[in-house]
Amino acid sequence: MILNKNTRWVISLFFALTLSACSSSNGGRYDMANDKAPSSAPDVTRVEDAHPKYEPYSRGGNKKNYTVLGKGYQVMDSGKGYQATGIASWYGSKFHGHLTSNGETYDMYSMSAAHKTLPLPSYVKVTNLDNSKQVIVRVNDRGPFHEGRIIDLSYAAAHRLDVLKTGTAKVEIEVIYIENPESIALAELKETKSHYIQILASSNKKKIDALAKNLETKYLIKTRLVSANNLYRLQLGPIGQRQIATKLNDKLKNDGYPQSYLISE
């Protein structure tokens, strides 16, 4: 039978729509319709916690406002000080190897997680309140979009917290916030306080004077005496930056002055 041009076009369109519907019913871009644990997983008991460090928030995945399943969410400007208690779930094979919300590849064997509103990436300590087990995860994805759930753990993190058997668990989450080193340095440059290191206090002024000369020669920093009630306090300073004063104080402790401490004015 010879088909005319219009008939062939209708048949082609029918097959295209059929294949599209099949693909949609099988989970869209994911290979599985439903999530599950891996059938042959490596030993994840030795997977280390995520190691918190400063990372700038990524451009991807941090859209200020977004909507999922008709509900709107607002991403936080910073995770500093964030704590919450709620239900944790986990996600595995269905999403393994696919892109996370900030453009990375999801690895269910790494210590990672998803959160609805924390900026990406963020580091979070997760405590299972049923057994007190803890992990540190790196949040690089969005979710879970189920009512009452506050975090979606990777397979490895869920295994470490013993959540796989129950599927969900009541947890406490706490952001481990790492300051931007450049911001810290700029803040120190703008600092107006003066810092002193108190070495010791004594009523023997002659002894204090001799020690003051030795310290000035050794550390190339001026000293001062603060006297009250016939007691002389020997202090090194002033030192303009707290970071430098802290490092010097640590050195003094190692050099035989374990009682030294920092004073800021």
From TrEMBL:
It is a lipid-anchor. Its EC number is 4.2.2.-. One of its GO terms (cellular component) is cell outer membrane. It is found in: Cell membrane. Pfam families: DPBB_1, SPOR. Residues 189-265 form the SPOR domain. Residues 33-57 are annotated as: Disordered. GO terms for molecular function: lytic endotransglycosylase activity; peptidoglycan binding. Keywords: Cell membrane, Cell wall biogenesis/degradation, Lipoprotein, Lyase, Membrane, Palmitate, Signal. Its main location: membrane. Lytic transglycosylase with a strong preference for naked glycan strands that lack stem peptides. Belongs to the RlpA family. This is Endolytic peptidoglycan transglycosylase RlpA. It comes from Shewanella sediminis (strain HAW-EB3). The gene is rlpA.
